[in-house]
Amino acid sequence: MAEQRTYEVRTYGCQMNVHDSERLTGLLETAGYTAAPAGAEPADVVVLNTCAVRENADNKLYGNLGHLASVKKKRPGMQIAVGGCLAQKDRATITDKAPWVDVVFGTHNIGSLPVLLERARVAEEAQVEILESLDVFPSTLPTKRESAYAAWVSVSVGCNNTCTFCIVPALRGKEKDRRPGDVLAEVEALVAEGVSEVTLLGQNVNAYGVEFGDRQAFSRLLRACGEVEGLERVRFTSPHPAEFTDDVIEAMAQTPNVMPSLHMPLQSGSDRVLRAMRRSYRQSRYLGIIERVRAAMPDAAITTDIIVGFPGETEEDFQDTLEVVRRARFSSAFTFQYSKRPGTPAAVLEEQVPKAVVQDRYERLVALVDEVAWAENRALEGRVVELMVAEGEGRKDAATRRLTGRARDNRLVHFTPLAVDGTPLEVRPGDVVEVVVSYAAPHHLVADGPVRSVRRTRAGDAWEARTAAPATATPGVSLGLPTIGVPAPLPPLVDGCR
Ligand code: SF4
User: Structure pTM?
Assistant: First the structure.
């Protein structure tokens, strides 16, 4: 290779973007780039994988690009690429506003990044390539996973819903489902590599199968994951209440390695607001699902997303949301102040709620969510919980020597790795320990007593192996990607950006 070029991928937004960034790093490493050491001089290639959900998403992007302009001035060979939802939305506007950007690629063609970088370098001209629909299913692309033992597995991309506050369908397109055989093959391949926890990923994960006409495809997939030898934990995100059916609840309850944790976006507790959001369920259906989940899995932890201040929301509507929070007993909630998104139906609605009112409701909502979460956590004091020791997240608190783990219900638990006789225990990220909860905080649990049992796992082995020899990209189906310095033949351009 002529020269070893370094890269850095900056990720904004949701899990879908986090997973896409694992592919972007896999693609770049397969093309011969190496990750720029943290804190070293700026990378030769900086990729911004953007999000378009929040109002200030644009400000954040152009702010970053402004900063990168001054860096690039000092490093002429440096390249800047912008991808993700904001790139899909703004397209050539990005190079109009920031002509120092070299590549703009969309959510449907992340596989094109290395080719576009080479083309921009050879042609010395910015390349903007946005597709209207999926090029190849991203899971065929090389991937470099962040975690040694946990992995995202996409089952679908895009969404068929039309929630009036959401820009995703416009940017990620209609729902496209992977064949169950492909999904399972990827899960089995990952487990063979040492992965022991997978999270099934989809914008609307439980609608999986709609494209090939199988309404029970998702529950079948969960049960099939239950048959994969060595797969300890299965999670999934994000389901939609409208499509959440009893066969999924039964599959969760009857498949031992499917974890009792459910993230079920509510958005609002008011039927009037749900109608205006075009969320095709109402308060009673939502609470009915929660009830049936709790009946089938009494220890399940349920989390949610809630928006306050949606246009037209009254104090009475807001009280309905608080009522659902009290009754649903969420273990935590992602709470958002409504943010107008140009291009969404809700952005042009008359009755925008004044900022001060939104702020007040937001504070009252967060206070109630925390109160309920803390009460739910306190109910676990004295309980034995099984943890998978975490990588990176949480704290390795020198003073308390605490480590952190994730319980089966996805709660965060800080524990002290000591045996009954007080001797320190050697536990690795990925290993499984049993501890007794000694204290509950609003957003985590603490287990300060001795560890009851330690199980060294393949996940722990995978972490150890990775720590010994840092990971390289896992090849996907070969796309014939060019390596640096070997200009690729220029495939036909889309969008007429030439
Ligand atoms: S279900 Fe609604 S909020 Fe979720 S991605 Fe689809 S349109 Fe957006």
Answer: 0.89
